[in-house]
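Structure (tokenized):
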């Protein structure tokens, strides 16, 4: 569904709400979906390793497989796509590719390239929890950016934590390198999200120290 609506970043943030009922007749043109994913992939990441992968499910048969895995949440069927946000547990393997490309484009010096790769290798080697923590943290940045990009283009989303991760991995043949960090639906709302109230900054912000 093409939209001419233009939203500022602030407007997209305020307009985004979690939608659970979608119009199953609305398709997102591939070009628009690709642009949303491209914007999501511009999210920040530790060492620029880009720890995310987007597993995009639009096939009705695969959506049906997802339905019981998502505890029968109809949104996985009715939304145009259900996107599995994956975190890369072996993102350190991307360091050489990332920094060789940066070196070839003149974005970094040889010294910086070597230093950054060494930092990544040492960090992943010496901290057993690094891989999982970074995979979840950085893929979450991309997930949030995807939702904002979708809203800016007139589409709705819902982040989902309610699904069976083990069955999801099995059903979609997800390699052990990747961990599902979020399931996310995207499409056009059939019913607008319920309004929500938010805590005030006086309850959320701690100045300097507890």
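Design, position by position:
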């Amino acid at each position: 569904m093409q939209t001419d609506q233009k939203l500022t970043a602030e407007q997209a943030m305020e307009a985004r709400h979690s939608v659970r009922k979608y119009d199953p007749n609305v398709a997102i043109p591939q070009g628009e979906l690709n642009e949303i994913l491209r914007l999501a992939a511009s999210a920040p990441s530790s060492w620029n390793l880009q720890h995310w992968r987007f597993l995009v499910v639009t096939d009705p048969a695969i959506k049906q497989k997802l339905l019981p895995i998502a505890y029968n949440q109809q949104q996985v069927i009715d939304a145009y796509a259900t996107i599995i946000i994956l975190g890369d547990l072996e993102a350190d393997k991307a360091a050489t590719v990332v920094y060789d490309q940066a070196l070839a484009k003149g974005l970094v010096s040889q010294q910086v390239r070597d230093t950054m790769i060494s930092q990544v290798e040492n960090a992943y080697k010496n901290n057993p929890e690094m891989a999982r923590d970074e995979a979840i943290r950085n893929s979450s940045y991309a997930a949030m950016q995807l939702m904002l990009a979708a809203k800016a283009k007139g589409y709705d989303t819902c982040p989902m934590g309610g699904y069976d991760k083990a069955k999801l991995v099995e059903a979609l043949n997800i390699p052990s390198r990747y961990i599902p960090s979020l399931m996310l639906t995207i499409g056009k709302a059939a019913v607008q999200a319920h309004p929500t109230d938010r805590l005030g900054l006086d309850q959320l912000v701690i100045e300097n120290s507890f």
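Reviewer-requested clarification: The first helix runs from residue 9 to 15. The chain has nine helices and six strands.
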